[in-house]
Design goal:
The protein is α+β, with helices and mostly antiparallel strands. It has helices spanning about 10-20, 40-50, 115-130, 150-160, 165, 210-215; strands at about 1-5, 25-30, 50-55, 65, 70-80, 90-100, 105-110, 140-145, 160, 185-190, 195-200, 220-225. Pfam families: Exo_endo_phos. This is Endonuclease/exonuclease/phosphatase family protein.
Length: about 230
């Protein structure tokens, strides 16, 4: 599941209800709290959603990974991307998670730049980082700040499966939550991962439209993935 939570500045009870109803094994957060007492807010989000903190937050300038107890964290790393003067510095939260005895999944959580040139370069850095993690099965999840016909989105989708395009399920558009007109949030996967379904979980039992609108200014993307055993 990928979710831009706008630093938990909106209805956090609604946010928690949406995540709990989706019951993800992996939650990739964008715009996690990253300033004063950010760890307290990360712990609160984990507690209220029934998940555990893996990595990221302020240390990745916003991207953060949470997981269920089914996931064993084999390794994690926060990566700061090169800074462009005058623009917010971006980063990646990354982890290799194991499910069961041998099903390993490399996860890269990202929030790409608002600037087109920088965003395109960052898409390449995301692909390089995922390839460098050394796992056949991998996912990129995040707020791409780009639509499917944009250069950065196309760069990612040329190398990875775009979850919605591969097996659409639920809703398509993610921004804004109140009036969704654009698909700028996505879950993408390597060829070793089978995409069973991917989209905005509108209509999922327990996910109320009012909660989706109140929780934050983006809609989440939920993907059902089958990860092969080694």
């Amino acid at each position: 599941m990928s979710y831009n939570i706008r630093s938990m500045r909106d209805d956090t009870d609604a946010l928690a209800r949406v995540v709990r109803a989706c019951a993800p094994d992996v939650l990739c957060v964008q715009e996690a709290p990253r300033f004063f007492r950010w760890r307290k807010y990360a712990a609160r989000l984990a507690r209220e959603t029934g998940l555990v903190y893996v990595t990221g937050g302020a240390t990745a300038t916003g991207p953060m990974i949470l997981s269920s107890l089914r996931a064993h964290v084999e390794r994690d790393e926060d990566v700061l991307l090169p800074r462009t003067p005058g623009l917010h510095r971006r980063g990646l939260a990354t982890a290799v998670l194991r499910f069961g005895p041998s099903a390993r999944l490399a996860v890269v959580c990202c929030h790409l730049s608002l600037a087109e040139k920088e965003r395109y370069a960052q898409a390449g850095m995301v692909l390089d980082r995922l390839a460098g993690m050394g796992e056949d099965a991998g996912v990129v999840a995040g707020d791409l700040n780009d639509e499917p016909d944009g250069r950065a989105f196309r760069r990612l989708a040329a190398a990875l499966q775009d979850g919605w395009a591969t097996r659409a399920w639920g809703g398509e558009l993610t921004s804004t939550a109140a009036e969704p007109r654009k698909r700028i949030d996505a879950v993408l996967a390597t060829g070793a991962v089978e995409v069973l379904g991917c989209g905005v979980p509108a209509g999922l039992p327990g996910v109320a439209d009012a909660d989706l609108r109140a929780a934050t200014d983006h809609l989440p993307v939920l993907a059902a993935l089958r990860v092969p055993a080694a």
